[in-house]
Design goal:
mainly beta
Amino acid sequence: NGALLRLTSSNTDGIVGTFNNVMQIGTIGADPIKFYIGGTEAVEIDTNNNVNIANGDLTITSTDGPSTTASPVLTLSRDCGNTDLADNDVMGQVLFKMDDSAGNLSTFAKIDVVATDVTNGSEDARIDFTAAKDDAFSAGLSIAGQKVGINETSPDRHLHVKSGTDNVVAKFESTDSIASIELVDSGGGVAEIGGEGNQIVFFPGGSDKGRINADGKFLIGNSTSQTTDLLQIETPDGSGGHGIAIRRNSSDSSEQLGRIMFGNTADSDVCLISTETAGASNTGAMTFGTAISGTTTTRMTITGDIAIATGSDLITTTASGSTNTRIGTDA
């Protein structure tokens, strides 16, 4: 029925027995131990204590019943004492090898585990997954604690993607007409930003509220452009807003509140509209200015009164427009 165990040796080169209460099977000399199945070598333990499995898979099977305790367990342990430990020591490595076109056994991918902090009670580690690129190795995916880095071994966010010289950092693709990213806060609030038909779309609360078209138009409140202007704001039917609000988070009595500038490639402020508080936190003033030869000058100021400048002349009128009207030089 075949031999269960066969060792062939001369003199004392092969032994089967106990030594210091330890069962030993092997060779006393420098030769490796080899196990054969059907006359073919299956397993070898070489002289460097490496275990080599030839032409087969390694399967570990546990017969334990269902349990919250893991079984089976594969342990890779590096027991080097506590004298030479240092942060960023490599704990273990898994190599994936295959012959290349020249018949050389080459590494094509690997997994490394690095001990980033070896301090007792605050041990930290990182797992690096690396695939060969032009026969060179640089970690493509790293897990450091609860943070994940792509092309980054020291991620400082839960997801840290580094693209190098590639301007496109990430790609999110959907087989649906819309591809979006969902943002959820601790209170369950949801907002999305996505892409649809070459447009950037904003979905606060899950509804389409604004988008930037492929032609550069910014649409707010409507998904369809109704004008050739670059900015389109559509307020809700009935009550619910008036369009645009420009507000400064301050109550100072004399400061600029906001400015709208109109310019071209030659000058950024050919025309402007500016607002400010005028002597009191709840009193406003508005000025209109235009430029001549690159110099912007105020042409109209509106407070309680209206002042209009035309060249060297100044025309002022009260809010009622019926008294205190003067035409003279612009002092």
